[in-house]
Design goal:
The structure is a homodimer of 391-residue chains. Chain A is of the alpha/beta class. Chain A has 10 helices and 17 strands. The first copy, chain A, folds into 2 domains: 236 residues, Alpha-Beta Barrel (TIM Barrel); 108 residues, D-serine dehydratase-like domain (Lyase, Ornithine Decarboxylase, Chain A, domain 1, Beta Barrel). Chain A starts with 19 loop residues before the first strand and ends in an 8-residue tail after the last strand. Chains A and B meet through helix 3, helix 4 and strand 10 of A and helix 3, helix 4 and strand 10 of B.
Chain lengths: 391, 391
């Protein structure tokens, strides 16, 4: 296996090899404290999405800060967290393959026996029938697994249409003694990166309408919705203010990426700092540009290219995609680098990834630095336990 | 660690879990035979780029087909191949960090002792001085490492300007007794995906001008260029026809991605087939679209979204990005799906990735299928040995 460890505990941050994924632990902990205070103030449950960090250690830290459980998107992500001692896990996504559902059923029984809980989202009668079959095959205990009915609140991806279709799914869940109908999954992914605060608020207002429609259908059927869960870093202040959502799934606030930072901040939203960076080194310099050793194998570019962090005034650089292994750095005159300053060969720089979740997935380890990126010390090297957990 | 093995040898291809990275071994071997015949016919050296496949096993297969060595982009990729018994490795990229150069020097001595060879590209006097220092510190044997001077032939990324600047670098290499000046690195990455055959030919004609300019400067200095190396799947017929390049670095032809397939084929170019696929499953279906379990955590999207493979006439689908974990499939009326056909819940589909290299990097294993994607059998499960080899 290749050498993917880029630092050792106790080293200076200047010694971290490149490219490396690095957390500013102080900034991350400030972000965590701000979100913990918010959910406590609003008396909400908090189940941060582990698709962000993919790390057992960070999941434990989030529990210490007040999270009562964790979301994941894939069965294998749930298995990775469970292997690290996490006991309250929600696969906030549909699982359809019988082989995967057998694993879901087994994991639910293991967590249940440990006093924990596994939950799964569903959006089809067929999916519920397959899950029930898997639970029967696993000789599952009564009421041993939570099921949430996903409704489409505006993202137009998974989820049934709001209203009576959701009631039919809940009834199908209620007909299965091993399954517990635990509420509605109502996450509006499409709203998270609407740039203006007003547009995000309007999108969540629409989602709340869809939930209201659905609740009316449940009322008419004499069924109760015990929990509505959803929300992300872009919109959670609105879900929290609604009185409708009982649980927030916010995860990205912990690291804050360039895409979230590009949102206009709503004054009601806590301020979150960038806490995740890619450290990179300049490996080539010409008259017009410099080239660093971080390409899109080091950082995801689905939500835009990285931005540069911590450059002094007059030293602004524009990052251009140089392929899998290279970033091309040009002087950014529009941002004050009129002199055409370029970094020197061997200089190291800090990048803010466009999107944290898939960036974390590209790395086996995350280096945790205490005391600032430039002067700090490596306090921990975390394993990305859920890296490549696709199935 | 999460369950990342998606198939076992001997299973039917229908049993491969999703999402999974799958090679059609028959198609891959046909591609390999076509390229091997081409390089033999043109009496060229062939050093395929391992940044495509990142697999020791595939590197060995390529050697059996006629490759005399392998390119990589990173020190840790070289280490991963060397650990698997590969002995002739060229890091076709600049390495600047002293810690990495110490590893480069160590690896060069290990390979040299085994009768193999390590090579490195350089584009600065500082880089050569640092490499020489690392070789001295490793007590390197005389002439034990190859160094290629990279010139910028049009990509405007790394590489010195063509002409006398390259001579100065070669002289600096020649002044170091442990280093062997092995020729010019002259790869034009920017030419590979120019869509028309004429544009690609024109770009390589420009590159050949830059090489000619450089050769004149070497002649004037009384220095010989023993090898010019470069070329990719998009342009290699031109480098091969030039009589200037002595070595081709083509790798992507082996798998062929959607981006290369979008190039207009030059009649002189051998036909290559798609051989690398992501198998995915439909996990949600609505009236307007279906959702599959492959998002951009399963396939790289830097060069465009995946296309669908093997759908029958009238069943064309358009793949839309659904985030890290989801693909959204819409009926493609413009491609003949006028009826609005959608796959059913649980159906599996084959995706052709937009860009193979970073797609491979997302997976720990590649499943090799013999006898066709649908009816075939799993013959091997390959490790992506160079996955995450960033440093």
């Amino acid at each position: 296996m290749p050498s993917t460890v880029t630092a050792l505990v106790g080293q200076s941050a200047t010694q971290i090899d490149t490219p490396a994924l690095v957390i500013d632990l102080d900034a991350m902990e400030r972000n965590m404290a701000r979100m913990a205070a918010f959910v406590q103030q609003h008396q909400l449950l908090w189940r941060p999405h582990a698709k962000l960090h993919k790390s057992v250690q960070i999941a434990h830290w989030l529990e210490q800060a007040g999270a009562h459980g964790h979301c994941v998107q894939k069965t294998s992500e749930a298995e990775a967290l469970a292997a690290g001692g996490i006991r309250n896990i929600y696969i906030s996504n549909e699982v359809i393959a019988p082989t995967k559902l057998a694993r879901v059923a087994q994991l639910s029984q293991r967590l249940h026996a440990q006093g924990g809980r596994l939950a799964l989202a569903v959006d089809s009668l067929e999916g519920i029938a397959r899950l029930a079959h898997a639970m029967q095959s696993a000789n599952a205990t009564a009421d041993s697994m939570d099921v949430l009915v996903e409704i489409n609140v505006g993202q137009n991806r998974c989820g049934v249409q709001p209203g009576v279709a959701a009631v039919h799914l809940a009834q199908a869940v209620l007909a299965q003694p091993m399954l517990h109908f635990a509420g509605l999954q109502a996450y509006h992914g499409g709203a998270q990166h609407l740039r203006t605060a007003a547009a995000r608020q309007a999108a969540i207002a629409q989602a709340l309408q869809h939930i209201a429609t659905t609740r009316q259908a449940f009322d008419a059927a004499g069924l109760r919705i015990s929990l509505v869960t959803g929300a992300g870093t872009g919109t959670f202040i609105h879900e929290a203010a609604s009185g409708v959502y009982g649980e927030l799934q916010t995860g990205s606030f912990l690291f804050m990426d360039a895409d979230y930072a590009a949102n206009e901040r709503d004054p009601a939203q806590p301020v979150f700092e960038h806490a995740l960076f890619v450290k990179t080194q300049v490996i080539s310099v010409s008259a017009t540009h410099a080239v660093c050793d971080a390409g899109h194998k080091s950082h995801a570019i689905d939500s835009g290219l990285p931005t540069l962090h911590g450059l002094p005034a007059g030293h602004a650089l524009r990052f251009a995609n140089g392929g899998d292994e290279h970033g091309v750095l040009h002087p950014d005159a529009t941002a004050g680098n009129a002199s055409g300053w370029l970094p020197a060969l061997g200089d190291t720089l800090w990048l803010i990834p466009g999107h944290c979740d898939p960036t974390v997935n590209l790395h086996q380890y995350i280096v945790g630095v205490r005391g600032g990126l430039d002067a700090g010390v490596v306090e921990c090297v975390l394993t990305v336990d859920g890296r490549g957990a696709l199935t």
